[in-house]
Amino acid sequence: MKVTAALTGFLAAVLAAPGTEPGLLPRSAGINYVQNYNGNLGDFTYNEGAGTYSMYWEDGVSSDFVVGLGWSTGSSNSITYSASYSASGSGSYLAVYGWVNSPQAEYYIVENYGNYNPCSSATSLGTLSSDGATYQVCTDTRTNQPSITGTSTFTQYFSVRESPRTSGTVTVANHFNFWAKHGFGNSNFNYQVVAVEAWSGAGSARVTIFS
């Protein structure tokens, strides 16, 4: 696995710059958290001030990684983003991702994914209509797994968009309120990022967060 800021030429060749949403500027205010999970990941290119990051991964990924930009304390505020994302044949997500401290939970609003839909092997909670699309909603329990407090047991919540996209506005509150009916704390938030996660295959992404 190799993600490095030195591959400027590669990124320029394969990553089209995200289209600017009308009337929006990159979100420079408020972004204060860089997610770079996995000691073997290496570097990825990011600019907190401009709210943009770029990264790629190669065949031979041996473990899970999650990278992104966002906020040290999450919220139910809507998030507008634009991205280029290529993950054909890859286990990967493009998602709003975060944690709740208590009851401890990990959550994903999956906007696009590679070859694996997490709701295919989790407990279905039904569907949610939001932002012009239907999301499959599901939950799972992770037992003695890595978490924000070390090794622990916690609940995962997923909303997976049935019509994948790479730009738009995510009305986060709709997902939080739906999950809250099934035990999601909907308060006491830890970090929240617009993230790319991958654990197999190859791919690339460039993501800009807008205010």
UniProtKB/TrEMBL annotation:
Pathway: Glycan degradation; xylan degradation. PROSITE patterns: GH11_1, GH11_2, GH11_3. Keywords: Carbohydrate metabolism, Glycosidase, Hydrolase, Polysaccharide degradation, Signal, Xylan degradation. Belongs to the glycosyl hydrolase 11 (cellulase G) family. The active site is at residues 106, 197. Gene3D superfamilies: 2.60.120.180. It catalyses: Endohydrolysis of (1->4)-beta-D-xylosidic linkages in xylans. Residues 1-16 form the signal peptide. PANTHER family: ENDO-1,4-BETA-XYLANASE A-RELATED. This is Endo-1,4-beta-xylanase. Residues 19-210 form the GH11 domain. Pfam families: Glyco_hydro_11.
